[in-house]
Write a structure and sequence with these properties.
alpha/beta, 5-stranded mixed beta sheet, single chain, Rossmann fold
Length: 569
């Protein structure tokens, strides 16, 4: 609870004033507000428990998708152990903090009368974005939907978390064609902020719509793309080799009003064309002379570079571009991105009315097309109705991809069970108007391990409840050996073993010799002293790696929950 001025002691007020003096002179400043789910991590450690009767196994040896039920702060904490640096794309649709949207902070719904509602929202978002950042791979990209209520503050927050130089763009989405006409200006749009983890990130181009290449010749369909370099940074002064005349034969015009060009002036190729910008200043071409020479003929129908006359009598030079992709634009105004389309998507699955304002499948699929390849791992830690999961599965079906999703959501009003999980189940099995998209899913719940009075008690309890976390980390869900003292799980690539008691090492090695393959094994072995027991495994002929637990888990929690760095841990 926030103190009033009268409740502060003199020494406390001095510390507050010192803190104000240390604050940044420029940037986003807010008063951090405590949150119970965060404070819990001072005394309890997040773990996972699988709900086995919700597992969906439809495709043998195919990737496994994950649904995690629980507060997303705890889910992100667990994922910082299991998936640090492994996530390729994050999409989230956070609460917009409109003052009337029911945003709940520290178990209280915020409304427009709360004088700290912006600080609380920034505290909520900032803590989770910091955890999410460490999950992204170096090539990772995050998309965040938002509206004008917090867009400006979110931009500054993301500049701080991800660094301003990793800002890609803000996409404007026309979610309501008519607009909110009760406002002074009818607002028709929302935003998607897009940031990269590092300069290694890459944005894909999108496939052009069918029919966008409207012209054709003997080599196929094409569209005309101006050969002049339209980048204002490039011109005759800094690209002198790309500034040269191209000569046009005006008498070679075909039915498309295209004329042949040449690098050599003659009686036929008599009209000179130079690269000039709209102001008439010297620009430059995109191609050098050697490349141009390879792509021109005396006849426009067979030439890959042609000329067209402008209304003022001048000439433009064009490449016949046959490229099937193009860069996405920053304004998305297709019908399919509108808010009502998300409601239609859910209705098609027979789930109409179960969730307010779900995001459209088309919208998130477009984000995934921009930032994923066919094997990407995608996280949505504010999964809501599960649109991200459906979008990913549909995209896999379209292009034969093996993308995987991790969806995290709480179970307020049974949303995780009755909406998120139910939606993914229907997409996989086929429901309503949708065809089945076979896939595999595992369902987990977050849980907490209380810190005990001694280090050893905490470590013993954490190891006893770490099985599911290790399975997630290793992506090994097939149970191969199950005993009280050790367990072995596998996938098509390798095994993961968990040894709960060092005395079981001999039994584990004996069991491994009976497995009829040579797959490598990662061995997680309980140790109070962080001992890897290397000498005990020296005679194990199978390729293996030794990983002591729980110290590796605790090290992650110390890093992300700095308040845990002291005390029993």
């Amino acid at each position: 609870m926030t103190k009033t001025l009268e409740e502060y002691t003199k020494d406390e007020l001095i510390e507050v004033i010192k803190g104000l003096k240390r604050r940044k002179k420029f940037g986003l400043v807010w008063e951090d507000k405590p949150e119970e789910v965060v404070r819990l991590c001072d005394t309890e450690l997040p773990v996972l428990e699988e709900v086995t009767n919700r597992a969906i196994d439809k495709v043998k040896d195919a990737p496994t998708n994950l649904i995690i039920e629980g507060d997303n702060y705890h889910s992100l904490s667990v994922l910082n152990y299991t998936h640090t640096g492994k996530i390729d794309v994050i999409y989230i649709d956070p609460p917009y903090n409109t003052g009337g949207s029911g945003f709940r902070y520290d178990d209280k719904i915020l409304d427009s009368t709360d004088q700290y509602r912006h600080s609380k929202w920034l505290s909520f978002m900032g803590k989770r974005l910091e955890l999410a950042k460490s999950l992204l791979s170096r090539k990772g990209i995050i998309f965040i939907s938002i509206d004008e209520n917090e867009a400006a503050r979110l931009k500054l927050l993301c500049d701080e978390v991800f660094s301003a130089e990793n800002y890609i763009t803000t996409i404007t989405v026309q979610v309501n064609k008519g607009g909110r006409d009760y406002l002074p200006i009818a607002v028709t749009h929302e935003y998607i902020l897009c940031y990269a983890k590092s300069s290694d990130a890459k944005i894909n181009e999108l496939e052009k719509e069918v029919g966008s290449l409207k012209q054709s010749d003997k080599d196929g369909k094409y569209e005309l793309r101006e050969l002049r370099n339209r980048n204002p940074r490039f011109n005759r002064a800094n690209r002198p080799n790309l500034y040269y005349p191209i000569y046009v034969n005006p008498d070679s015009k075909n039915t498309s009003n295209e004329c042949a060009v040449s690098l050599t002036k003659s009686d036929v190729f008599s009209v000179e064309a130079l690269p000039k910008n709209s102001k008439g200043d010297d620009s430059c071409w995109r191609w050098g002379k050697p490349l141009l020479e390879k792509n021109i003929t005396q006849v426009p129908d067979t030439s890959q570079v042609v000329a067209r006359q402008k209304r003022d009598g001048g000439w433009n030079i064009y490449e016949k571009s046959r490229k099937a992709t193009s860069k996405a634009k920053s304004i998305w105004d297709e019908t399919e991105v509108r808010t009502e389309q998300g409601t239609i998507d859910l209705r098609k699955l027979g789930m109409g009315g179960l969730f307010d304002h779900p995001k459209p499948v088309y919208l998130i699929k477009k984000c995934l097309k921009l930032a994923t390849d066919k094997n990407s791992l995608v996280l949505d830690y504010m999964a809501g109705s599960g649109t991200t999961g459906q979008s990913l599965l549909e995209l896999n079906k379209e292009d034969g991809g093996n993308r995987r999703f991790i969806l995290c959501t709480n179970n307020e009003n049974q949303i995780a069970e009755k909406v998120t999980y139910e939606r993914i189940s229907r997409v996989i099995s086929g429901s309503g108007e949708s065809e089945p998209i076979p896939a595999n899913v595992r369902y987990f719940k977050t849980s907490l391990v209380s810190k005990q009075q001694t280090n050893d008690q905490t470590r013993i309890e954490l190891v006893a409840r770490s099985t599911e976390m290790i399975c997630l980390r290793e992506d090994t869900f097939e149970k191969v050996i199950d005993t009280k003292m050790f367990k072995v799980f596998g996938n098509a690539d390798h095994y993961a073993a968990i040894v709960f008691e060092p005395e079981a090492i001999v039994l584990l090695k004996d069991a491994l010799t009976k497995l009829k393959d040579d797959k490598a094994i990662h061995i997680y072995i309980f140790s109070l002293s962080n001992d890897t027991y290397e000498s005990d495994f020296a005679d194990l002929e199978r390729t293996h790696e030794l990983r002591p637990i729980p110290e590796s888990i605790l090290e992650v929690y110390r890093r992300i929950h700095k308040s845990q760095s002291e005390g029993v841990l």
